[in-house]
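Hello forum,

I keep getting stuck at the same step: I have a sequence, I want structure tokens, and every attempt I make locally crashes halfway through. Rather than fight my setup again tonight, could one of you with a working pipeline run this one for me? It's a single chain of 101 residues.
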Amino acid sequence: MKKIILAAALAVAAVGATAPLAMAADAAAAAKFTTDTPIQDLVANPGAKAVLDKVFPGLTTHPSYDTFKGLSLKALQPYSQGKIDDAKLAEAQKALADVKG
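Reply #2:
Ran it on my machine without issues. Output:
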């Protein structure tokens, strides 16, 4: 009897332990790229990089790319001398939402 109860407890614990992992995997699959995503992560995805190249030509080939690649577009905006404005961020956000991660 004790073995049955122990086996049942282990089975419940195993299901309970995998549920958060499955939920995290579902959330990651549903996650979209945004203007808050680090630029280096956008560049790593061909679809997201295409958005950057279209909306912000020259961004990924900029001489200081290695310096700012860890920032998001929103974080980089104040340092962009007006090249990353609210309208372009909105355009990028809309296009990035369609990119599959």
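The chain has two domains: 1-31, 39-96. If your local run keeps crashing, start a new thread with the error log.
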